[in-house]
Design goal:
There is one protein chain. This protein has 295 residues and is mainly α. The strands form two sheets. The protein has a three-stranded antiparallel sheet with strand order 1-2-5, with no helix packed on it.
Length: 295
């Protein structure tokens, strides 16, 4: 419906980007003013071009916007509410804007998901302080902000579970009150907590972390030895980069652990709704983007 489509544009794309400190897309092609049935490939191209250029959205955010739009119009076409998919028609023109320096368009577009073996190989090659964290992310698909925010009280060895109640998010303004090393403690991105059952070996890793560094229940599980503060996104990114360099993997990011697990779950036969629940997606259509790629 028009209302749902307006919500997609205003909330999922615009407001989310603004919360992350990016500029509001003033002057961008107003897709929200159009009926979903009337959107053309030229409209999609203009909207993405303006987000990337005039509004200076980050490259990763533009890619996420493309995924949301592509999944939306693909669903509309499948439901026979549109004859064509404007995203598919605009794909070739738009992707040229995202071509990374030094890479061909083919190299930019084709990035195979990490296998389960590769994910745990990265974790094993990581600096010791990040080894268990990366294994946890690879095994559960939790977001990096969720992993950084895990406290000892969130881990239940008797039940073999970890509960994700909070997430640490990066904040661009240093004037924001209550910051923890430039991060703010918030509810998870999905808006609610979730409990994940861990494999025995992963739970054993967490128990070993707590045994080696006894502390109160409200202490961060992954913390700096110097002051007890949690690691930052940059700390984790640097550790991941070191691990990839050690095993000869290039062009990978920490989020590839989450994407790799999603791919493995789809390959095992799980549907988008089940994978979305595991990964903490508020909408299964987000997971459908990965499923479409695997298929």
């Amino acid at each position: 419906t028009r209302r749902d489509y307006q919500h997609l544009i205003d909330t999922l794309i615009v407001q989310t980007a603004v919360r992350r400190g990016e500029q509001a897309p003033r002057g961008a092609t107003p897709l929200g003013d159009l009926s979903a049935a009337d959107v053309t490939a030229a409209d999609i191209h203009g909207f993405i071009r303006d987000l990337y250029g005039r509004c200076r959205f980050s490259q990763s955010r533009v890619k996420q916007t493309w995924q949301v739009l592509s999944a939306t119009f693909s669903s509309l076409q499948a439901a026979e509410l549109r004859d064509t998919d404007p995203c598919e028609l605009a794909r070739r023109r738009w992707r040229g804007l995202l071509k990374a320096p030094g890479k061909t368009q083919t190299e930019q577009e084709v990035m195979e998901p990490l296998t389960v073996g590769e994910m745990f190989k990265i974790a094993d090659a990581a600096p010791e302080r990040f080894r268990v964290m990366f294994r946890l992310i690879a095994a559960t698909g939790m977001r990096i902000g969720e992993a950084l925010a895990v406290q000892r009280q969130d881990v239940n060895p008797l039940k073999g579970t970890v509960t994700l109640r909070r997430a640490l998010t990066r904040v661009s303004s240093t004037k924001t009150p209550g910051l923890i090393r430039g991060m703010k403690l918030e509810t998870p991105k999905s808006g609610k907590s979730r409990t994940i059952t861990l494999a025995p070996d992963v739970m054993a890793d967490l128990e070993q972390v707590m045994a080696n560094d006894p502390a109160s229940p409200d202490t961060w599980l992954f913390r700096r030895a110097s002051d007890g503060q949690p690691y930052t996104y940059q700390d984790a990114y640097d550790g991941f980069k070191q691990a990839c360099e050690r095993i000869g993997l290039e062009g990978r990011g920490l989020h590839d652990l989450r994407r790799g697990l999603a791919t493995a779950l789809f390959q095992q036969g799980l549907d988008a709704k089940s994978v979305g629940l595991i990964l903490g997606h508020s909408d299964s259509s987000v997971a459908s983007v990965t499923m479409k790629y695997v298929q």
